[in-house]
Amino acid sequence: MARNKTKLALRVNDDNPNHHLWNNRGVWWCHLTVHKNDATSERLRFSLKTRDLESARDRRDRILRDIAEHYEVAA
């Protein structure tokens, strides 16, 4: 499958295992910002539909892997 031409800059803070996560009234959410080639950016926020932190981390990691498979990730 060809990758989308948009390059994504993914920043991950290895010192913070909850990077990109926040808890909203007991439910974990993931939030990230996509910086596009045309100098625009888009904030993405979506529910991970779990109250369990370990499950939230696993779901976040799976989502970030899926994003990296479909888009070229800038170094």
TrEMBL record:
Highest taxon, organism lineage: Bacteria
Protein name: Uncharacterized protein
Organism of derivation: Oceaniferula flava
